[in-house]
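Researcher: Let's run the pair from yesterday's discussion. Sequence first, then tokens, for each.
Model: Starting with the first of the pair.
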Amino acid sequence: MRRYTTVLFDLFDTLIRLDRRRLPTVRIDGRDVRTSAAEIYPGVAALIPGVTLEAFYAAFLWSYEEA
């Protein structure tokens, strides 16, 4: 059985209300998007070379929609 070292609880937009107007803006597929993905992406890109912001954002959005 796999052992986990970390458990992440995502409470944003559940217990913590997000003011989306305060999120950073990035350009995705020719449009400006306010998203926290803008802050997360540099760390992901360092760990997964070659992943584009657009690809990361699509996966990030998909995970949000699945939740």
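Model: Moving on to the second of the pair.
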Amino acid sequence: MAVIRWLLTASEAQLLRFLVLGLLILILGAILPISAVNVFRHR
């Protein structure tokens, strides 16, 4: 990871961070409603 960070410029690292955060938010946005539905179905 340190080598990858060193190769990237500051702007590229920032862009990559935004992309990763966006993906995490999308995954959480998809998983949380599904898990909530599963909890309601089990009750």
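Researcher: Give me one sentence on the second I can quote.
Model: The mean pLDDT is 84.
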